[in-house]
Design brief:
The protein is an all-alpha fold and about 60 residues long. It is built from four helices and no strands.
Length: about 60
Amino acid sequence: MPSRTVLRALGSGATDETAARELGMSLRTYRRRVAERLNALGAGSRFQAGMRAGELGLHG
């Protein structure tokens, strides 16, 4: 699953459950992918990840 797909889902405001279902993955896998993206971006929160992804032009 591309990083941008998970970042878009994260930024959509959907619950984890909804985002996981829409991406066709389990809730556990979705949360693991989110944690990986947070770590890769050096973010301590989902908000920080969104800000950092925007700074890097990774949205959309």
